[in-house]
Automatic annotation (TrEMBL), chain A:
GO terms for cellular component: plasma membrane. This is Carbohydrate ABC transporter membrane protein 2, CUT1 family. One of its GO terms (biological process) is transmembrane transport. It comes from Salimicrobium halophilum. The lineage of its organism: Bacteria, Bacillati, Bacillota, Bacilli, Bacillales. Keywords: Cell membrane, Membrane, Transmembrane, Transmembrane helix, Transport. Belongs to the binding-protein-dependent transport system permease family. It is a multi-pass membrane protein. The chain crosses the membrane at residues 26-49, 90-116, 128-150, 162-180, 201-223, 259-280.
Automatic annotation (TrEMBL), chain B:
One of its GO terms (cellular component) is plasma membrane. Residues 70-282 form the ABC transmembrane type-1 domain. It comes from Salimicrobium halophilum. InterPro entries: ABC_transporter_permease (IPR051393), MetI-like (IPR000515), MetI-like_sf (IPR035906). It is a multi-pass membrane protein. This is Carbohydrate ABC transporter membrane protein 1, CUT1 family. It is found in: Cell membrane. The keyword Acetylation does not apply. Belongs to the binding-protein-dependent transport system permease family. It comes from the Bacteria.
Length: 295, 289
């Protein structure tokens, strides 16, 4: 209350002293916040609408004017989508695939990055240039031979088929190498003097120093894997092995007009990544900015 | 002694590099090379692979479906890029100030970026529902009889463009915010002393100095939007009447529906060439700087 009064007094004083000049900033400020809130609403309304629809009973979705807040909220859509459809199975598949892809990507790319950034060997720079050059090639070029390869390996409709080819994205190696180049020589030299071997230097000296970058890569890879649609679409035909994006498209194929049910499915698919986002927002933004690429 | 350390280095090199190198060669290197080879053949995965020279590429040049998908992709890009650039920059300018709840607003604008295309597409499909969708309801309030959106060939691609822009504005915003942070405040101070207003500062300082970022964002968006696929697949499946069929979808159909591996590979190389052109332009411009 006291705060409010004092700020009122301040406003009053301002208006009094320089009436015409000081009124504009206030109007500007109001306009500014209106714009911001307007923008944020446009971003949020589809999400709120998704949640609201998922909580409506049968029939309440097809009503005009629409109920923004469900009159009789119910969890029946969630029950139906998890009981009559393997939604939980999709969730599990997505978790397995995203977690293993992320772990693999982090280990393999940071280890290769150590070789590229901290070790001397013949042809090193040429090999890395080759890595870099392939970054320009879009996934659409590699997906056909990758599919054939996976088929040869007998990995169609399997976790390895979903996980292993996506673990070797060059972007990870590139990012980790950049991070490792910044480590001062003296640090590892000191460790070698103490009798450490390469693995100990990698694990005890280098990794702790690039932790933030490694986290950004991990989050980025997790998100990419979680949201990937094209690769599961190609590799998986057995419904039991579908990840969430593919599962949602199957859900659409079956209950295209049951919007309450569909939105319940979408909520289930979005919620986990949203929770990760809430805790690791910084790394999401960092990872996306560095990649400059998204699918 | 020297021999020992050499052997040791080789041992460690194998441990660190080999797993990644093998994966890289198997799942990236070899596929790129074989994709190029397959593009010169006729192959349905089951029968013999037959070399046909440039036949696939010739067929491509004469294939009306390919050109339709190319035109649709260009139409998508022409709508999508200005939208994400303008609104991405606008959001970045709004959020570049010190203010209350800045972190909240930034997180909100970024929210669609972390959501999958499939989820976003389904939600927007529902929003676009001609009878009960929120968008046509909102339009009806201000007295506009909303279009059929995704089921009308004239508006389907516009619908996809709007939803895509909505999803990516936060991404572009973050890139612009990075660019804005690189502009030294001294420019603005100097301009203030010269009595420049906000609009002039924006036009004469911010926009010119942001040019490298704008260029980078444009190229990245171009490369990404040539690969547009998920949202089209979910929202329209290329319809109605092929009005939203895009390049990647064409590749997908030929490869995994009709099993024309050679033809699909040739298409993917054409897509690569187009993307490479923009990558090359970007590298040239970067070199000059």
């Amino acid at each position: 209350m006291a705060m409010e009064n004092s700020s009122k007094a301040l406003v009053y004083q301002n208006t009094k002293s320089k009436r015409s000049k000081k009124r504009r900033p206030i109007i500007n400020k109001i306009l500014f916040y209106l714009l911001l809130i307007g923008g944020a609403s446009i971003m949020l309304i589809p999400f709120l609408w998704m949640v609201s629809t998922s909580l409506k009973p049968d029939g309440a979705t097809m009503v005009l004017p629409p109920e923004f807040v469900p009159n009789e909220p119910t969890s029946q859509n969630y029950e139906k989508v998890t009981q009559q459809f393997p939604m939980m199975r999709f969730l599990w598949n997505s978790i397995v695939v995203a977690v293993l892809t992320t772990i693999g990507q982090m280990i393999f790319s940071s280890m290769a990055a150590y070789a590229f950034a901290r070790m001397q060997f013949r042809g090193r720079d040429k090999l890395f240039l080759l890595y870099l050059a392939t970054m320009m090639v879009p996934t659409q070029v590699t997906m056909i031979p990758q599919f054939i390869l996976i088929k040869q390996f007998g990995w169609l409709d399997s976790y390895p088929g979903l996980i292993i080819p996506t673990m070797f994205a060059v972007f990870g190696t590139f990012l980790m190498r950049q991070a490792m180049l910044g480590i001062p020589r003296e640090l590892e030299e000191a460790a070698f003097m103490d009798g450490a071997n390469h693995f100990q230097v990698f694990y005890r000296v280098c990794l702790p120093l690039i932790k933030p970058m490694l986290a950004a890569l991990g989050i980025f890879t997790f998100m990419q894997s979680w949201n990937n649609f094209l690769w599961p679409l190609i590799v998986i035909s057995n419904q039991e092995l579908a990840t969430l994006p593919l599962g949602l498209s199957l859900l659409q194929g079956r209950w295209a007009t049951d919007w309450g049910l569909m939105m319940a499915g979408v909520v289930i698919s979005v919620l986990p990544i949203l929770i990760v986002y809430l805790f690791a927002q910084k790394y999401f933004i960092q990872g996306m900015t560095m990649s400059g690429m998204k699918e | 002694m020297v021999g020992m350390t050499r052997k040791k280095t080789f041992f460690w090199l194998c441990i660190f590099l080999l797993p990644n190198l093998l994966g890289f060669l198997t799942f990236i290197g070899a596929p790129i090379v074989s994709s190029l080879i397959i593009s010169f053949t006729d192959w349905d995965l089951l029968g013999e692979m037959q070399f046909t020279g440039f036949e696939n590429y010739i067929r491509l040049a004469q294939d009306p479906d390919f050109w339709v998908s190319f035109r649709n992709t260009i139409f998508f890009i022409l709508g999508y890029i200005p939208l994400v650039l303008i609104f991405g920059l606008a959001c970045a300018l709004l959020l570049n100030k010190q203010m209350k709840f800045r972190a909240f607003f930034r997180a909100t604008f970024f929210l669609p970026v972390i959501t999958s295309w499939v989820a976003v597409s389904l939600v927007w499909k529902w929003l676009y529902n001609p009878e009960y969708g929120l968008i046509n309801y909102a339009l009806s309030i201000i007295g506009i009889d909303g279009p059929q959106w995704l089921s009308d060939p004239n508006t389907a691609m516009i619908g996809i463009i709007l939803a895509s822009a909505w999803k990516d504005i936060g991404f572009v915003m973050v890139l612009f915010l990075g660019g804005l942070q690189n502009i030294s405040p001294s420019f603005y101070e100097a301009a203030s002393i010269d009595g420049a207003g906000k609009a002039r500062k924006l036009w004469n300082i911010t926009i010119p100095l942001l040019a490298p970022t704008t260029f980078f964002v444009t190229i990245i968006s171009l490369i990404n939007s040539f690969q547009v696929f998920d949202q089209v697949m979910i929202m329209t499946g290329g319809g109605p009447g092929g009005s939203t069929e895009v390049m990647v979808q064409n590749i997908y159909n030929h490869a995994f529906r009709y099993f024309e591996m050679g033809y699909a590979s040739a298409m993917s190389w054409v897509l690569f060439l187009v993307i490479f052109l923009f990558t090359w332009i970007q590298m040239k411009v970067q070199d000059r700087r």
